[in-house]
Amino acid sequence: MQQCPFCKGENNLVGGPCPRCGRRLTEKLDMRYEGTIRRSQQYNRTLIDKVWRFFSSVRNGMYILLLTLLATAVGTILPQRAYIPIGRLPGEFYAAEYGVFGRWYHYLGLDQLYSSWWYMTLLGLLGASILIASIDRFFPLRRALRMQPVKRREHFLRSQLYVRHSVIDDRERLMKNLRARRYRIRQDGDDYLAEKNRFARWGPYVNHVGLLLVLLGAFLRLFPFFYQDEFIWIRDGETVVVPDTNQSLFIKNEQFIVDTYDTDDPKFKAAIEQEGRMIPKNFTTDITVFEAEDHIAGDTPDLKPLKQMQVAVNHPVHAAGFTIYQSGYQLHEFSSLTLRTENQDGSTADFRVDTENPQAMYELDNGLHAELIDYYPDYRLEEGKVITETKYPRNPAFVFDIEGNDDHKERLFVAIDDVVSETGTNRYSIRAVDYDTHHVSGLSVKRDLTLPIFLLGGVIFMIGLMQGLYWQHRRIWLRRQADGSYLIAGHTNKHASSFEREVERLLDGYKKGGSS
Amino acid sequence: MTSTRKKRFYIRLTVLAALAGLVLTAGWQLLVEGKSEKVENGEKAPDFMLTDLQTGEAFKLSEMKGKGVLVNFWATYCEPCKQEMPLFEEASNTYENDNVIFAAISEDESKLVIDRFRERYKLSFPIMRDNGQVMEAYGVNALPATFFIRADGTVSRTVYGPLQTDRLEDYLDEIVP
Questions:
Q1: Which residues, 6 or more positions from A55, have their beta carbon under 8 angstroms from its beta carbon?
Q2: What is any one of the record's Gene Ontology cellular component terms (chain B) (predicted)?
């Protein structure tokens, strides 16, 4: 069946006028689907047919694709919720950082766009469109190409782009030349059909299979079995639980090592001086991965070591079904501060304060005793008040009550570079003289079983692209006319001029008597 | 309908149903995904074991059977958490006779900081320091967060973010055994 280009009716147009609108086909044939009508266009009765028809339309597919692109773009305007600073409440964060726009962005759920039901629906519609549009075209096309006769009606041949008349006496020689150009030849009586590279027609469909695999990968990412992405901060010597593993997996940071560029190396010297600080070259964490069974949260876990290894930037390691990446670090978090006190006689005594978990009372050699009244691990002044921003000892400050033997008590505020007497007297003094630091390693713990699917999808996509782009499906029909001469018609699905040149060369070669 | 049409109808129906199934599965998975990390109403509250900083004794949730438990995640550096503390102190005294226990789990690192805070606010209910594990088990990622747990160990109510103070008593009444 063919479609009348004027009334879009379903007609057997070959030769005669369209019985519906009466017009005669004078244009060249639309050979996209071998001049056959797309299957979904044939009937349209049930709801299923209507839905099918909607998805089979490339135009509708394009609308869905554009909507998906638009939505994807909108999701990149502000950071997604997964990437806002840890510990901030989303409702508060978006309003505070981005004003009214941020408030609406959060309110409309655009901060979790990529995992929203409607975005998933869009991807689903896109998948449906690709799948159904392919089915609707692939099967009729395959059928038409498989069943194609060698003898075609004269009208069909005359409606092709390439049409010639020629006298061919030595048909065998011409066929030999065609075979030399890698045409496959079929014969029916005195008529011939030479065809090559039919597989190029399947390119778009192979390509679509690749796309569908990519969508399938995105779908599987929704399942924790296929995809899990966790991030942990671990201090030197600390053991932490990996989130969302049912408290069964623990990682210990044995040692975190930063390797910096050598300042004495003339190659880097200028660059380091310009930067004004040490530039890390590489960072590495020695880790031990542990397993725990029936662990009660908060309790000391009963750890069974699974693996000991070293994870470095760009050198992830595998353990317990996860891949562990070195993906961040914080240098020089304080682990302790050494404070020096001086009594009224000028004799000094030093003491160490653990910044992670300090003790309250300190008896000193110079007769003083210090009581820790308040501790701010990460202090900052806000409206004249001392507050701590986090629980991490990044900028520790202490309030001490220092007492001698004579019952004189002084309250002193001590930070790494600051001392303030709160009682106003200055009989005793205290200051920080030394400190110890440790590093914190940031590890990304991931499981992604969808990567091979994405890779396969990508490879198939590329194969389909090449198949459809680098080869052309070319056909040459030879139909013997009543006078013994031949009507030669040719069709190619793309690159018409190069095809014409090929056929011209073939025919010229034949006429000159040689092999082309 | 001819037989090919019938066949096509069923093929189309199957393909469309399969696609709809996939989209619905994805939607369902999205709904469940957010929940699986968080503790939900009606679920069994994850067990935990921490040390009561005041008494030095172990506090194990599963040993509190027969009592309603309010579990609050907080920290001294969290402003809204601080404001809730005096309310909890008051309510914990009121509900002591009703067999409702308060457990305030601090995310602070140093015991001293918590002790000083407790002294300043004169808090008498159990306060403990988390090592990050309990917060993870409850799927809490922002402070404060409060869980009202019934005597049978199931969660009656979850509040992420600051409590509406006037509702506190209503919520507590729900977990009185």
A1: A61, A125, A128, A129, A131, A132, A133
A2: cell envelope
Query: Does residue B21 share a domain with residue B53?
Result: no
Whether B43 is covered by a domain: the verdict is no
Indicate the burial class of A89 (C-beta count within 10 angstroms; 0-12, 13-18, 19 or more). middle
Phi then psi dihedrals of residue B148, to 5 deg:
-105, 115
Between strands B68-74 and B100-106, the pairing is: parallel
Answer yes or no: do B149 and B107 share one domain.
yes
Residue B17 forms contact with A (CB below 8 Å): no
pLDDT at A182: 93
Give the mutation candidate from B6, B29, B81, B107 for the A interface (greatest A CB count, under 10 A): B29
B129 and B164, same domain (yes or no): yes
The reply to whether B42 falls in a domain is: no
Q: Express each pLDDT in B26-46 by its tens digit.
A: 888 887 766 557 788 888 889
Residue B1: give the domain boundaries: 1-37
- The C-alpha atoms of residue A227 and residue A83 are separated, in whole angstroms, by 18
Question: Considering only residues 90 to 129 of chain B, which have any Cβ-Cβ distance to chain A shorter than 8 Å?
Answer: 107-113, 115-116, 128
- Do residue B22 and residue B53 come from a single domain? no
Query: Which pLDDT belongs to residue A516?
Result: 43
d(CA A276, CA A305): 42
Same domain (yes/no): B32, B63: no
Same domain, B100 and B18: no
Contact A222 B33 (CB under 8 A): yes
The residues, any chain, with a CB within 8 Å of residue A330's CB and separated by 6 or more, are A233, A394, A439, A440, A442
B94 in the same domain as B60: yes
Residues 6+ apart with CB under 8 A from A211: A130, A457, A461
What average pLDDT score do residues A234-238 get? 90
- Residue A290 burial (CB count, 10 A): 22
Please state the φ and ψ torsions of residue A133, each to the nearest 5 degrees: -60, -35
B107 and B138 fall within a common domain: yes
Best B73, B112, B130, B140 residue to mutate vs chain A (most A CBs within 10 Å)? B112
Residue of A nearest to B128 (CA): A298
Q: Count residue pairs from A and B with Cβ separation < 8 A.
A: 123
pLDDT of residue A446: 92
* Closest residue to B134, CB basis, from A298, A378, A389: A298
pLDDT of residue A473: 94
Position A270 scores a pLDDT of 80
Chain B contact probe: residue of A94, A296, A388, A389 with most B CBs at under 10 A = A296
Asked if A357 lies within 8 A of B111 by C-beta distance, the reply is: yes
- Would you state the pLDDT for residue A20? 62
Residue extents of the structural domains in chain A = 31-147, 227-331+442-449, 334-436
User: pLDDT value at position A460?
Assistant: 97
Q: What is the pLDDT of residues A372-424, one digit of tens each?
A: 988 998 888 888 788 888 888 888 999 988 888 777 888 888 888 888 887 77
The shortest CB-CB distance from B108 to any of A52, A359, A391 is to: A391
- Classify strands A239-241 and A249-260 as parallel, antiparallel or unpaired: antiparallel
Residues 6+ apart with CB under 8 A from A215: A123, A126, A127, A130
pLDDT at A380: 86
Count the domains in chain B.
Answer: 2
Indicate the pLDDT class of residue A509, thresholds 50, 70 and 90.
confident
Residue A250: which pLDDT band, with cuts at 50, 70 and 90? very high
Say which residue, B33 or A466, is predicted with more confidence. Answer: A466
Taking CB atoms and an 8 Å limit, are A298 and B133 in contact across chains? yes
Average pLDDT, chain A: 86
pLDDT value of residue A21: 62
A301 preceded by a cis bond (ω within 30 of 0): no
